[in-house]
Amino acid sequence: MTTYTTRLLAPDTWDDFAALVEANNGVWGGCWCMGFHPEGLGGTSEEHRAAKEKHTREGTVHQVLVYDGDQAVGWCQFGSPAELPHIKNPKAYEKDLEELPRWRIGCIFTGSKHRERGVARAAVTAVLEEIRQRGGGVVEAYPEQVVDRKPQRGAYLHTGPESLYEDLGFARDRQIAKWRWVVRLEVGAFGPPGQSDPRRLR
Ligand SMILES: CC(C)(COP(=O)(O)OP(=O)(O)OC[C@H]1O[C@@H](n2cnc3c(N)ncnc32)[C@H](O)[C@@H]1OP(=O)(O)O)[C@@H](O)C(=O)NCCC(=O)NCCS
Q1: Does residue 15 lie within any of the structural domains?
Q2: Which of 6, 121, 150 is the best mutation target for the ligand 1 pocket, counting ligand atoms within 8 Å of the beta carbon and taking the most?
Q3: Is residue 200 part of a domain?
Q4: What atom in ligand 1 is closest to the CA of residue 122?
Q5: Domain enclosing residue 165, as ranges
């Protein structure tokens, strides 16, 4: 079992992040993990890269990078709904929305050569610890159902596998697409890492 380390995306880790994105053809042909940010997509790959670098320089992105040795192999992005306004299925999401969460998990990605070896698990676990250190609160993710569905390649699990979030204590809140759910977890501000009050909300 590989032991991973994690670091936040920041000016001093930008080159590691960029190398991972470049090794994966820009991610979906050049989104550079901009889809959840306020600017969204719609530009060229170069424009997305420049926008992501600006967020990194200005400290307007929260993103955990997972390292195998000194190589970044995956990431998980998090932030407030204002920082990450563009989720998939926004109309269905808003229809039964009662209260926005304090935190949301945005883009999750593992390099294509590193999948199914615990990278995403390490990334989301580290994100929950980062959130705990920032005072905790309700966290939402929008993963893809994998149980009672024919097997899917990781590449098609755009918002991550629901089973991973369930393992980490998230519970279903509501369905927003045929195979996509809003899942929620309340992270406490205290307690040792990994035991951050995984109280199910519903
Ligand atoms: C989905 C994705 C993040 C999973 O990353 P990963 O590092 O391979 O995941 P992990 O090895 O940490 O797996 C953790 C858990 O997720 C689940 N899981 C992972 N891949 C799965 C798959 N293909 N099918 C079903 N469940 C899966 C399992 O429950 C697994 O737990 P287990 O190992 O105990 O069985 C990865 O496949 C990926 O990056 N896909 C593309 C996502 C994408 O497009 N992101 C950009 C969005 S714009």
Answers
A1: yes
A2: 121
A3: no
A4: 12
A5: 5-187
Split into its structural domains, the chain has a count of 1
Assess whether the C-beta atom of 98 lies below 6 angstroms from ligand 1: no
Q: CA separation (Å) from 27 to 34, 50, 58, 145, 169?
A: 10, 15, 22, 22, 29
Q: Is 118 in the pocket of ligand 1 (CB under 6 A)?
A: yes
Q: How is residue 139 written in tokens? A: 């966290």
Element (H, E) at 175: strand 171-177
pTM over 0.85: yes
pLDDT tens digits, one per residue of 70-86: 999 999 999 999 999 99
What would the pLDDT profile of 26-36 be if each residue is shown by its tens digit? 999 999 999 99
Confirm if 38 and 80 have CB atoms less than 8 A apart: no
